[in-house]
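Q&A log
Question type: sequence-to-structure
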Amino acid sequence: MARIDAFLKLGMQQGCSDVHLAVGVPPMLRMNGDLMPIKFRDVGDQELESYLTEIFTKNQYEFFGKGNDLDFSYVSADGGRFRVNVFRKETGIGATFRAIPTDIPSIDKLALPPIVKKLCDYHQGMILVTGATGTGKSTTLAAMIDHLNTSRRLNIISLEDPIEFVHRSKQSQVIQRELGTHIPSFAEGVRAAMREDPDVILVGELRDAETISMAMTAAETGHLVLGTLHTTSASKTIDRIIDALPIEEREQTKSFLSQSLLAVVTQILVKTADHKARKAICETLVMTRAIAKLIQTDQTHQIPNQIQTGKDLGMQMLDQALLASLAAREIDPDDAVTYAADRRAFQRYVTDTTLMPKLDVTGPTTASHAASGS
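Response status: OK
Response body:
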């Protein structure tokens, strides 16, 4: 058994989402969003490197030795599965192990908005799940793929970096391909997938113009495309896609979005009322003729108004979702308010009096709280 497995086992027993290892500090666990050190000595540089090299493959060792950050999946001796990032910093190397649950949670278990399940009924178009790093995008996408896998007979091709949840084919065939192992890039993966008779293509991250362009092509040519972006609102997602592509393709991109984008689900993770877990809170945009027109006429700044009044279509702004969960006593008000755009509406829920001065504002404020999670 690799020595690092002892830390990972402890983390799994405690129910943490991440295990952090870095030179000069003890190992740390992220528990419900908070980072907590374990009772252990500060880890030395050579000590940590020896822990990690025990689990590297030859190719990973050579790649990291060239000064590159390293992303890969790892299965511990106890069967725990982790997404791993190894990096260098000023004081030495560091690593983060994200725990991947063995069982894929369902859309219902995650308590995602009902519109998420309805979106899985589409046969063509693009659905984007967005949010900051660590806000549960991968978990939401895994739940959507599992729903498709369970309810429809499809050929699902998932392109990931690295592979996290492992899907067993049920009603559908699920093919999982890993960046760097099976495909050289997401763009090449989408290009190859389109020759493999797919019904659904999942793109782990729309990280560059070429990948976005290929994903758009796949959605336009009769496939259901699921993808992620690191954007923090639905309207910002639209702007990011338009800005990512060359100026000469801007009109074409706006046309695609207005015709083939089905929905954007932007999520955060907020502590539950009992502080024992975190709940996904989602802002949801569903494409309508009105929103399509705003995109085509460069008025994306008005999209939030359409979302706010689109409840009957399954749409909601993040503040609306937060307030609904607060009214249902599902989430912690003091954590929820840090994510709010207009904090004044949350004032009556806050219990931590130290937050009250921050709520004495004359207009909406934007939270800069960074979430982390499954």
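Response note: The longest helix spans residues 137-151.
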